[in-house]
């Protein structure tokens, strides 16, 4: 930063720039005669990229030299990396996420400091210049690419970067995201119709005891099945809420609407003539049948 005129204390004001390669003893000096100058460029064609230098700046006027600033370390400009990352691998972890990993360029085969890596990801029917770009920082050699389309072919490539720019790209690798799980659910007191798209009909069956939040969290039971119906034997004198959730390799689907099964009294079980409004009750033993109809649809 330049020195304000009121602090220059005389005419003939200017700057003395002193610098030396880091680790050396002798200072090189140059004079910048303009009091408004705020920069000095040292040119040396043999200077290696990103070379560290110690620098200090002093002042002078017609009466003599003033003090120097504290010493600071600056670097010459760097070159972009000249080698591409190697061993790029990609795998689908869900219908919308892909994990990609790579190895750094060989240290003895590239110039330029590496600040991080840039991952480019584009769908097979897209142009590469429109690729999604994700940047990592430092030595990180893996990342996750999210918000992708399910069951789609993607290309991924990685390149190193620094302040000078990005280096050459690795060869592209291909990965196909997992099939998505879509569904629409309709419920009636006894039957749930689940429509799924290109996924196996596996389901979670939930029957939490009671409807309060604390009871729901503490007493939820889970049944996993690949069948389209399940028989549940429930205790007497308790209400039940049943939910059905589909899942596949692409992830979990959302739950169906809640199906409430009213409690069955002991009196009804003994044949006292009491009635219940549940159309799902098959016998006085409080056994119910939940039927699921799954059908593929394009």
From TrEMBL:
InterPro entries: FN3_dom, FN3_sf, Ig-like_fold
This protein's encoding gene: Cntn4_0
Source species, domain of life: Eukaryota
Primary location recorded for the protein, binned into one broad class: membrane
Keyword Repeat among UniProt keywords: yes
Subcellular location: Cell membrane
The name this protein goes by in its record: CNTN4 protein
Alphabetical UniProt keywords: Cell adhesion, Cell membrane, Disulfide bond, Glycoprotein, Lipoprotein, Membrane, Repeat, Signal
An example Gene Ontology CC term for this record: axon
Organism phylogeny: Eukaryota, Metazoa, Chordata, Craniata, Vertebrata
GO biological process: axon guidance; brain development
Keyword Glycoprotein: yes
Residues covered by the Fibronectin type-III domain: 1-79, 84-180
GO molecular function annotation: cell-cell adhesion mediator activity
Stored Pfam families: fn3
């Amino acid at each position: 930063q330049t020195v304000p005129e009121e602090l220059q204390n005389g005419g003939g004001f200017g700057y003395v720039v002193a610098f030396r390669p880091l680790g050396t003893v002798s200072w090189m000096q140059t004079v910048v005669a303009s009091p408004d100058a705020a920069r000095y460029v040292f040119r040396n064609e043999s200077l290696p990229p990103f070379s560290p230098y110690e620098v200090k700046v002093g002042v002078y006027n017609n009466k003599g030299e003033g003090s120097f600033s504290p010493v600071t370390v600056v670097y010459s400009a760097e070159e972009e990396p000249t080698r591409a990352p190697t061993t790029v691998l990609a795998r689908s972890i869900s219908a919308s996420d892909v994990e990609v990993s790579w190895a750094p360029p060989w240290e003895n085969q590239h110039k330029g400091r590496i600040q991080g890596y840039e991952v480019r990801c584009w769908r097979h029917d897209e142009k590469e210049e429109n690729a999604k770009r994700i940047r990592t920082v430092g030595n990180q050699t893996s990342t996750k690419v999210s918000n992708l389309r399910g069951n789609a072919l993607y290309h991924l490539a990685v390149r190193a970067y620094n302040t000078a720019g990005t280096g050459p790209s690795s060869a592209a690798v291909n990965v196909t995201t997992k099939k998505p799980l879509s569904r629409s659910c309709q419920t009636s007191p006894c039957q749930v119709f689940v429509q799924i798209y290109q996924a196996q009909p596996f389901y979670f069956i939930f029957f939490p005891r009671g409807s309060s939040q604390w009871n729901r969290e503490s007493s939820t039971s889970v049944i996993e099945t690949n069948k389209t119906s399940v028989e549940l034997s429930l205790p007497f004198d308790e209400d039940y809420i049943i939910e059905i959730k589909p899942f596949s390799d692409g992830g979990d689907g959302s739950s169906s609407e809640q199906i409430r099964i009213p409690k069955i009294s002991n009196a009804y079980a003994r044949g006292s003539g009491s009635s219940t409004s549940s159309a799902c009750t098959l016998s006085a033993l409080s056994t119910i049948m939940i039927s699921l109809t799954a059908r593929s649809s394009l």
